[in-house]
Amino acid sequence: MKKYIIISLILLATTTLKAQEGTSIFINYLPSMPMGGTADFSDNISPRGIDFEVERFLSEDLSVGFNIAWNLFREKIPEETFYHNDLTITAVQFHYTNIFPVHVNVKKYFSGQSDYIPYAGFGLGTSYNETRNDVGIFTLTEDKWLFNLAPEIGMLYDMNYKAWLSVKLKYNYGFKAGDFPSQSYLSLGLGIGLK
Amino acid sequence: MIINTYFKHVTMNRKYPIFALLLLASALLFSCHPDYDATVEELDVAITQYDEEQDFSQLQTFYLEDSIVYINDEEAGSSVNVNHSQNDLIISLVRQNFLDMGWTEVTGPTDGQIDADVSIMLSVLETDVNNYYYYWWDWWYWYPWDWWFPWYDDPWYPGYPVWPIFPTYPAQGYTVGTLFIDMLNMNEVEIPSDDDSSFKLPMPWQGAAMGILAGSDTFLQQRLTNEINQVFEQSPYLLK
Lengths: 195, 240
What we know:
The complex is a heterodimer. Chain A is mainly beta.
């Protein structure tokens, strides 16, 4: 049922609606591969990710925009002994990393006559990061806002006068803050945009 | 009038795609429930804490009471069913682990005094999973100290490890059982004859085995055995 609702919404959005002139709105499915500090805690490729983006075209080949995203990484650690404060604990651990980046971005488009428009972009902003370790019925949680950047390359397909299809590779990096480690991951974005 | 109509048209169109996309985003988010489905066994935990300044080589003999103090959760009412059927298993496992690690057992009080370096206190806390944190936090408040020291009305409670964390509820409606294995250093116990602040109950070592009380007796016994053994396995400083 949920699938049909999603498909219906996409069809509805692409065939009957129109965004403001010069502005496009994108939504991307964002499966991601954890790297660095993110992989140290939750080292599995994650199918759970999404971003929402609004782009304002300043000219045909330049846009500025706003992007908000969510990614969840998780890993089950088989039973092992670890230490927390002065406690020695043996248990199975369930690790979760939730990352919510919020960026302002700039994109440069290399548009020609083709319907395929490659671009390169750069996002700068912050991210809310939460790591969670579920142990038995307890949970250990740490969270931090990190300074964040996200370069990306991608391609838009000019589907019709109302909609884009988009594919992108996006690298996300949140800088270490205090004891909270840096967070990084590489995302493959597949999405749709409304002109 | 025409201009107003135009703007109204633009505004409405502007709203709907955002709304549609947000709905789509919500549908995707909520269709991806992040939690693992942990089995009951995977929620078992063995925890130990010890006093790093304690020289365990000075402690050679132990006394183990042949009974277990049960503390149940009055607020959980009928959802908690204290089960004493595992008493023998728990006591024998704890005894065997101490003996295997080279400790010598002192079997009974002499003239009302326990002539052992340490006394091992066993207690079981059973509570509905929703109330667990509350009880854990105030553990020493619930412990029936007057059972141990009936002559002393208002003892000072040593601090029990408190996790700076909050519970999750992966198993609503289940009962959590925790076996506490507490080592009291009898050489350093100070019990004043009257009410003053010099009451002292040094705990050089504490262990806990916790888990959801579910499954058959055999399953419970197997998990209890694993967890009790693990509590000792992760405490190599107790080895003689």
